[in-house]
Design a protein that fits this description.
Elements: E1 8-12, H1 16-28, E2 33-37, H2 46-49, H3 61-69, E3 74-77, H4 88-94, E4 97-100, E5 106-107, E6 120-122, H5 123-130, E7 147-151, H6 155-165, H7 168-172, H8 178-185, E8 191-195, H9 207-214, E9 219-222, H10 231-235, H11 240-254, E10 268-273, E11 276-283, E12 290-301, E13 308-319, E14 322-325, E15 329-330, E16 349-350, E17 353-354, E18 360-362, H12 365-368, H13 374-393, H14 406-415, H15 423-438, H16 450-456
Parallel strand pairs: 1-2, 1-4, 2-3, 4-18, 6-14, 7-8, 7-14, 8-10, 9-10
Antiparallel strand pairs: 5-15, 11-12, 12-13, 16-17
Helix pairs in contact: 1-3, 1-13, 4-14, 6-9, 9-11
Bound molecules: flavin-adenine dinucleotide.
Flavin-adenine dinucleotide is lined by residues 12-18, 37-40, 45-46, 50-51, 55, 58, 81-83, 101-103, 105, 127, 156, 159, 329, 334, 364-365, 372-374, 377.
Length: 459
């Protein structure tokens, strides 16, 4: 009898979820063919457009992804927006299995008056701006004020605070875009408040990011010892990471600044403000921009991770010219053919199998919600890949009917005037970026205009 035909799998999205899912399927199924589709010409999702420019070591996962892309059984097609250039039902006709790993491309909104005033930005847009995400390249955030307020107590909030307060020479040798570096060079921001609805025991950032802030040259931490009263006993039985994190905040709050001599004060400062929930972004007198935020003071009901912030009735105003809301990313529905839980912002699934649609899978942030680091995303992508493999092996997924794979998609794309970008095209773009960065001593100077990306990889 003839050998079983190779199953064709496609993956939508080339972030960590897409690449780790592909990697696991290729490794554990000797015949499977995997095609990765990506909306942008350039791959790697938030590894390129989210991870902070001064964390180059985090981006080393790109080497592993590149190895996967070089597999003979793997192909990459960038510049293809699934849901627009090709639909999910069309992919289902071309492949035995379709894995959706398109991440979380939107942000949660505050839902308060003044949120749309000039001077207010989502963390997603701000991060996209300094990382060269095409849609945010013209953000031009106004950095002419001295105080910024970040709403949120997660790692993204700390990334932004660090970028705002870092000495320029620390950023100059990173892959931060040239135009954002120029804007930061003129920035007047010297104070950053990070505001959260709950208390020190509920912060969502990790110790590495906190330590980086504490050790940031030229910036002083302003933490109020009163915020930590009584926490020593509360944290005694907490899991070790939470305990160490809280202890570091307490130690910092109690430390006397070392250099108290005149003139030695740090020119910049940052601090954590707890148990404050935003009520309104306040407009300047002429209504033209943000001048501060009105906050509701809260008390906590319950304890630990599940503690709820309840308004006490007291309010406070904080002056600031820049407001960054870092309260979370959000996935969007992709295609009417794919079920979507808009309440939770995820595709309903069990172990990555999309509910009610055999042959359709999901992984990464669109599967479990927009939290967790790359390792978390890796584990959940392996879990999804395992489901695909089990379904192939157990016959749930019938791989015997011939599926054309990219051959079919290619003709669809051609009829719609879409030019896919291959992985070797990406390597030309990559080389162009590296060459551009060389003169300035940067690992790369990112191309931020999709048309220019395409021009760097001529067809
Ligand atoms: P993504 O990385 O967002 O990838 C999704 C991909 O799908 C993107 O390339 C997108 O362009 C593509 N796509 C979207 N729509 C379509 C479509 N319609 N058709 C085709 N393709 C599409 N983790 C760490 O471990 N260390 C860090 O330092 C770190 N820093 C972070 C900083 C920020 C600001 C953020 C937001 C996250 C950070 N993370 C970090 C977390 C990490 O980035 C995520 O865990 C991970 O990227 C999620 O992977 P994903 O593949 O689900 O989503």
């Amino acid at each position: 009898s003839s050998p079983a035909p190779a199953p064709r799998v496609c993956v939508v999205g080339s972030g960590p979820a897409g690449f780790y899912t592909a990697q696991h399927i290729l490794k554990h199924h000797g015949g499977a063919l995997v095609d990765i589709y990506e909306k942008l010409p350039v791959p790697f999702g938030l590894v390129r457009f989210g991870v902070a420019p001064d964390h180059p070591e985090v981006k080393n996962v790109i080497n592993t992804f590149t190895q996967t892309a070089h597999s003979e059984r793997c192909a990459y097609y960038g510049n293809v927006t699934v849901g627009r250039d090709v639909t999910v039902p069309e992919l289902q006709r071309a492949y035995h299995a379709v894995v959706l790993s398109y991440g979380a491309e939107d942000n949660r909104v505050l839902g308060i008056p003044g949120e749309n005033l000039p001077g207010v930005y989502s963390a997603r847009a701000f991060v996209g701006w300094y990382n060269g995400l095409p849609e945010n390249r013209d953000l031009k955030p106004d950095l002419s004020c001295d105080t910024a307020l970040i709403l949120g107590h997660g790692n993204v909030a700390l990334d932004i605070a660090r970028i705002l307060l870092s000495p320029l020479q620390l950023l100059r040798k990173t892959d931060i875009t040239d135009s954002s570096l120029a804007a930061l060079a003129c920035s007047k921001v010297k104070r950053v408040w990070l505001v959260g609805r709950r208390g020190p025991l509920q912060v969502a950032f990790t110790i590495k990011e906190l330590r980086e802030m504490i050790n940031l040259p030229g910036a002083r931490a302003v933490l109020d010892p009163a915020d930590f009263t009584g926490l020593e006993s509360a944290v005694k039985d907490a899991p070790r990471p939470r305990k160490r994190l809280t202890e570091l905040m307490m130690k910092t709050a109690l430390e006397k600044p070392v250099e108290m001599q005149a003139g030695a004060a740090a020119p910049r400062e940052w601090g954590l403000k707890f148990q404050r929930s935003p009520l309104e972004v306040l407009p300047s007198a002429d209504g033209s921009r943000a001048r501060g935020v009105r906050l509701a003071l809260t008390r906590l009901e319950g304890s630990g991770d599940s503690a709820k912030a309840v308004p006490t009735g007291d309010e406070e105003e904080l002056e600031c010219g820049l407001v960054l809301s870092s309260i979370g990313y959000r996935s969007l529905p992709l295609d009417p053919a794919v079920p979507f839980d808009s309440q939770r912002g995820v595709i309903p699934n069990s172990s990555g199998r999309v509910e009610g649609v055999p042959g359709l899978y999901c992984s990464g942030w669109v599967k479990r919600g927009p939290t967790g680091v790359i390792i978390t995303t890796m584990n959940d992508s392996f879990d999804t890949a395992q489901s695909v493999l089990e379904d192939l092996q157990g016959g749930v997924l019938d791989a015997s009917p011939f599926r054309e794979g990219f051959g079919l998609v290619e003709s669809i794309l051609r009829s719609r005037g879409v030019r896919p970008v291959s992985f070797s095209d990406w390597q030309k773009i990559d080389a162009a970026e590296v060459a551009r960065g060389k003169a300035a001593g940067k690992p790369r100077e990112k191309i931020v205009d999709p048309a220019e990306m395409l021009a760097a990889a001529p067809a």
